[in-house]
Amino acid sequence: MDKITVDAYKFKRISSLMAKEFGKIPKGDEGEEPYSFMLFSMENNLLKIHRQNPLCNDQRAIEAVKMCLLTIDGYLRETDYDYVRYINEENQSLMHGLLMAFDPFTNPEIKKIIINDRNTFVAKEYFKLPIMCLLRIEKSIETWTESFGKNGYFEFIEDQIGSQIKSDNKMDFIIEVKGKLVKKQV
User: I want to staple 41 with a disulfide (CB 3.0 to 4.6 A). Which of 69, 101, 103, 149 is the partner?
Assistant: First the structure.
């Protein structure tokens, strides 16, 4: 496996490259299946982390999304990306929360369900939905930050889903397996 240190160009371009390859959620479809469940898990985890550490703000969340996209790109291209120029405690926490919502290589519970219980695991097919959701979250963060400042996104999701989010350290995931939704906390 190749190891590549992520430079400014790669970090800035990963979102547009992934959007070009995998597509984006059509405008207005965020609340529809299959997107809504994945988005809820990701945003749930982001909000829990932000509540625990307010330094995990919108900028750190955008960095976390980009690092998640690079992580997936690394899986697909068998490349190990080194984020040494970008990683800090805040974006690393947010990245972990996002990955726990869908990544079988980060979340052992998902691995047990997806990889171990399936005869075949097609990574490119599996990661399409999480990529599209990450791209939508990134766009949402940009929109709300521009409108309401450095915590605009977190203020928005707190208003939208905050009452539904438990105050614990457990990371949620909801995945679809054979047409059924599996929801768990780890």
Answer: 101
Q: pLDDT digits over 145-168, tens only?
A: 999 998 999 999 999 988 888 888
Determine contact, residues 60/9, Cβ cutoff 8 Å. no
Write the secondary structure of the chain as one string of H (helix), E (strand) and C (coil).
CEEEECCHHHHHHHHHHHHHHHCCCCCCCCCCCCHHHHHHHHHHHHHHHHHHCCCCCHHHHHHHHHHHHHHHHHHHHCEEEECCCCCCHHHHHHHHHHHHCCCCCCCHHHHHHHCCCCCCCCHHHHHHHHHHHHHHHHHHHHHHHHHHCCCHHHHHHHHHHHHHCCCCCCCEEEEEECCEEEEEEC
**How many Å apart are CA 47 and CA 161, to the nearest integer?**
9
The tokens 């190749």 sit on which residue? 2
pLDDT digits (tens, 9 = 90+) for 57-79: 999 999 999 999 999 999 999 99
Where do the domains of the chain lie?
2-185
What pTM value is reported for the model? 0.92
Residue 36 has pLDDT above 90, yes or no: no
